[in-house]
Amino acid sequence: MQEEGWNEVVFKPVISASAYHTHKSTLKDAAVNQAHFDEALAHSAVLVQPFEEAICKEGEWSLIFFNHQFSHAVLKVPKSGDFRTQPHLGGKIQPMEAPVRLVQDAERLLSSLPEPVLYARVDGVNKDGHLVLMELELIEPALFMFADTKSPEKMADAIHEKILA
Fold first, then answer.
1. Whole-angstrom Cα distance, residue 17 to residue 121?
2. Are 124 and 133 in contact, with CB atoms under 8 Å apart?
3. Sign of the CA dihedral 102, 152, 136, 58?
4. Least C-beta-crowded within 10 Å: which of 25, 34, 43, 159?
5. pTM for this predicted structure
6. Distance between CA atoms of 37 and 40, rounded to whole angstroms?
7. Alpha-helix runs per DSSP H in 60-144
8. In angstroms, rounded to a whole number, what is the distance separating the alpha carbons of residues 103 and 73?
9. Alpha helices, DSSP H only, in the chain?
10. Nearest to 126 by CA among 27, 58, 64
11. Which domains, and CATH codes, for the chain?
12. pLDDT tens for residues 5-45?
């Protein structure tokens, strides 16, 4: 944290789901949180990233794409006093119309991938009108299909296009 100049971070195992071993720490509390870090590290390598306060203020966007075409979005909002957005921890997942600029930023990100992907979930926060990437999910089973009644058909069409390509 000192080396990167980060005062507040989130850390979690790179192989994880549902906020498993996900913790937040400040530089001041790093020594106290070392045991949590070591426990996460016992499961896999650990991802450490700067904490984005926008998660607590607005929430985290999940933008879903099939064959690089935007399909739908949800906004994941943590319960008051927490930063984790998972429903089993009190967070709420709401279908939302994503701001156009965030979708455009996600499209640019996906176009930079070395190969096209069948589907993607681009998770990030809105910071000054731009998408700050938190996670790029390319093998994610949670695509929030409930948020758009046409999303199963969109995914089936994407699979069909890939088969015919």
1. 14
2. yes
3. positive
4. 34
5. 0.89
6. 5
7. 100-111
8. 9
9. 34-41, 54-57, 100-111, 151-164
10. 58
11. 8-50 (no CATH), 54-164 (3.30.470.20)
12. 999 999 998 888 888 889 999 999 998 999 999 999 998 89
